[in-house]
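pinging the channel bc i need a second pair of eyes. not urgent but kinda urgent?? the chain im working w is below, pasted from the shared doc
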Amino acid sequence: MQEELQKVIIGQGDVIEQLFAAVFTRGHCLLEGVPGLAKTLMVSTLARILDVGFKRIQFTPDLMPSDITGTNVLDEDEHGKRNFRFVEGPIFTNILLADEINRTPPKTQAALLQAMQEHEVSVGQTTYTLPEPFFTIATQNPIEQEGTYPLPEAQLDRFMFNIKVNYPTLDEEERILASTTRGEKPEVRKVLSGRAILNLQKLVGSVAVSEYIIKYASRLVRATRPKDDSAPEFVRELVDWGAGPRAGQFLIHGGKALAAMEGRFSVAIDDVRKVAIPVLRHRVSTNFQAQAEGMSNEDVITRLLKELPTPEIPKFER
């Protein structure tokens, strides 16, 4: 998958790794970055190398929930009898690209909540099940304020990772300019079917997690909550509210995916540390004092990772 994707996408190794981790653990991703960093191209190329359905929705201020989920239309048969027929919306696919998700009002953003959590859609009195596997990969531009609607916290919490797409390095940018201005379009091949993805998800789910790792993940999540007894002093001063239990679940899932992709049979502390920032970045809200001190939520998480001690491993005596 990585070889095929890097025929089109140059660099962005961490972003690609996190995308794969989400795919193999039934997670959803929110990609953030300024325009022109190939966020949409990355997702559409990922869909091309997977033998699954792919739909793209361009979110706009006038988009309605029924434009995403589908709607009931009135049909008339040859006998003149009228019946309602459900016409599926673009959400009935395997990979859904929600492009510029913050450009549509919360009413329309909320149309994704049930789909992302329960993998089903309710229209009228009927609930429809979405095809498996199902992933939502959303993009948003963090620098634009005019005509945008910030995602509600409940919506943000549905995303496993909040992935920051950064500028390429000098060498990568030179390679991008050289390869994209030739007029050649690289061909990619499909390497995984939908059934293979479901099997890999089961395989990743079976990766062993020790009690030691679970203790570390739960302590890390609890330490982000300013009212928790275990929270360090700087968290109580700089954070308004911290991460919920879903963050701990995603830390374990992300650790399992990284371990499996590297061919290891169990999760290590470093796997949890590696996914901590993309998992916690959108679940920790800093207050005004943090902003006054120039501390972002990422800075708080990074400091927490440095200061939080690892749980002690019990020594077994003979």
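so The mean pLDDT is 85. and Residues 113 and 227 are 28 Å apart (CA to CA). — does that match what u expected or am i reading it wrong
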